[in-house]
């Protein structure tokens, strides 16, 4: 996974430098970014298939590819935070999760611009580069920074989100909307954010983040406490002391 991410990152760094220049053109960088997405996904798929040829894939661009193995599949987002990438904002990530019989057993989230690689394997802990990660120890929401994602144009859920946002804003130190769900979850695992919630996400947005948060000692569920966040896309992650407090606020909204 590390090797695949590093190889795809080389192209993304080059393309990110180009997309910054395209900001000044009349055509704009949208088509260029789509091409960068597809190129990065092809590299990831080729490298991972080389290492584990029998595993299946679930990919943002390429959809689902069944594997001979029948038990394992890679869940891939080549650029999580595409809008940031599009605008020359250096906050986006390659996200790779490994699923076995419905359970995420390994994950990697890599920001090619900051060179921060977050990774975890079931039962072996979560790490940032070579540093062991733990979720924050804050137990008071008033001292906490909570990350979220706002439903963008064309997506449903604006009204419920605004109600949730209003309730959470009144009880925390701050809210951050940074534009890449995978990195939001990595930041919860690293203790940089104390919690994160979002609705309407896709499996490739959160697969790697799920194992990172769990292996760093955090809780990650659906917003109402359900266990199927990977496929419902309604996600709440936090340290154990804040998780229920946030769930209570959000479900009352």
Strand order of the largest sheet: 2-1-3-4-5-6-7-8
* Chain-averaged pLDDT: 92
Protein structure class: alpha+beta
Query: How many strands in all?
Result: 13
Shape from CA axes? globular
CATH superfamily of the largest domain: Fructose-1,6-Bisphosphatase, subunit A, domain 1
- What is the end-to-end distance? 39 Å
CATH topology of the largest domain: Fructose-1,6-Bisphosphatase, Chain A, domain 1
Q: How many domains, as an integer?
A: 2
CATH class of the largest domain: Alpha Beta
The succession of helices and strands, N to C, reads HHEEEHEEEEEEHEHEHEHEH
Total count of helical runs of at least 4 residues: 8
Architecture of the largest domain, according to CATH?
2-Layer Sandwich
Structural commentary:
- By secondary structure, the chain is an alpha+beta fold.
- The protein folds into two domains: 2-132, Fructose-1,6-Bisphosphatase, subunit A, domain 1 (Fructose-1,6-Bisphosphatase, Chain A, domain 1, 2-Layer Sandwich), CATH 3.30.540; 141-252, 3-Layer(aba) Sandwich (D-Maltodextrin-Binding Protein, domain 2), CATH 3.40.190.80.
- It has eight helices and 13 strands.
- The strands form two sheets. It has an eight-stranded mixed beta sheet with strand order 2-1-3-4-5-6-7-8, with helices on both faces. Strands 10-9-11-13-12 form a five-stranded mixed beta sheet, with helices on both faces.
- Helix 1 runs antiparallel to helix 2.
- The mean pLDDT is 92.
């Amino acid at each position: 996974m590390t090797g695949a991410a590093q190889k795809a990152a080389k192209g993304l760094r080059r393309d990110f430098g180009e997309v910054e220049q395209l900001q000044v053109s009349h055509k704009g960088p949208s088509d260029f970014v789509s091409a960068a997405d597809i190129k990065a996904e092809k590299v990831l798929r080729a490298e991972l298939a080389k290492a584990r040829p029998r595993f299946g894939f679930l990919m943002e661009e390429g959809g689902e590819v069944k594997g001979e193995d029948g038990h394992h599949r890679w869940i891939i987002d080549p650029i999580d935070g595409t809008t940031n990438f599009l605008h020359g904002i250096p906050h986006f990530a390659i996200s790779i999760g490994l699923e076995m019989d419905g359970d995420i057993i390994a994950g990697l989230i890599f920001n090619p611009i900051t060179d921060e690689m977050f990774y975890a394997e079931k039962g072996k802990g979560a790490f940032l580069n070579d540093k062991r990660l733990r979720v924050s120890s804050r137990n008071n929401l008033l001292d906490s920074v909570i990350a979220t994602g706002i439903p963008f144009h064309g997506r449903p859920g604006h009204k419920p989100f605004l109600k949730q946002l209003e309730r959470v804003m009144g009880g925390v130190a701050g809210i951050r909307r940074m534009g890449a769900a995978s990195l939001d979850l990595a930041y919860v695992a690293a203790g940089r954010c104390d919690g994160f919630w979002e609705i309407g996400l896709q499996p490739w947005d959160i697969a790697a983040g799920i194992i990172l948060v769990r292996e760093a000692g955090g809780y990650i569920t659906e917003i109402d406490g359900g266990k199927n966040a990977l496929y419902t896309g309604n996600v709440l992650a936090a340290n154990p002391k804040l998780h229920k407090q946030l769930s209570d606020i959000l479900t009352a909204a």
